[in-house]
Amino acid sequence: MEFSEIVQQRRSVKSYDPDKTISDAELRELFDEVVLSPSSFNLQNWTFIAVKDSAMKKKLKEAAWGQSQVKDCSAAILVCGKLDAYQDAPKIYKDAPKEVQEGLLPMINNFYEGKEQLQRDEAIRSASLAAMTLMYGATSRGWATGPMIGFDPEAVSRLLKLTPNLIPVMIVVLGRQKDPPRPRSYRHPVEKVVRLNTLDGPGLTGMPHPPNKPDPAHMPAGA
Ligand SMILES: Cc1cc2nc3c(=O)[nH]c(=O)nc-3n(C[C@H](O)[C@H](O)[C@H](O)COP(=O)(O)O)c2cc1C
Hints:
Elements: H1 3-9, H2 24-34, E1 46-51, H3 54-62, H4 69-72, E2 75-82, H5 89-92, H6 98-112, H7 116-140, E3 144-148, H8 153-159, E4 166-175, H9 190-193
The structure holds flavin mononucleotide.
């Protein structure tokens, strides 16, 4: 599947076939790609908990405002951000040349140590990028997905036994879509959300790339 087709096809799906299961091997194939996601200093501030067990999915649904997709999906994947990922740097850079280690390791430590807000921002950034890889990777394999933050973070942390260094960033439900997709919801026009050079600069113009419907405002006069 072409990448733009994957992007067009991905939707936040809410209804899943409860009888469809996903094997560990299929999840493994997916996560082999997810872990290639980028992260600051390559710290890989993420951990994933794939909930496949029916009883656990039911409990997770209770902690997710009763949203039925959590129970009916094949796997409800909790994407966690790792607050203390900077402490993994020595392991991550163990094969780097000595001079790189000597320069980088103190720098990473100084950058994050004691800075709780930054640790949290970084955990959320990295985990979110990984979640996007997960959703596109799943879409390319014919799975439907849905990102979710509609849950009680404390209840979810307790249920899935998170340690204090992990925060629940989002749940990604994954499974076989049951109902046909709803029409794509409203998107702000690109001209409005992309500015050139500065925020008060002009909006991005130019003809939309086919197969988007041409915007009459961009058509030459008399066309
Ligand atoms: C961080 C995040 C949290 C979301 N939480 C929920 C949720 O709890 N329940 C839900 O039904 N949809 C949730 N959504 C899905 C959004 O409603 C959906 O992405 C948006 O309406 C756009 O639709 P689309 O993804 O199909 O293009 C969430 C999306 C994101 C990115």
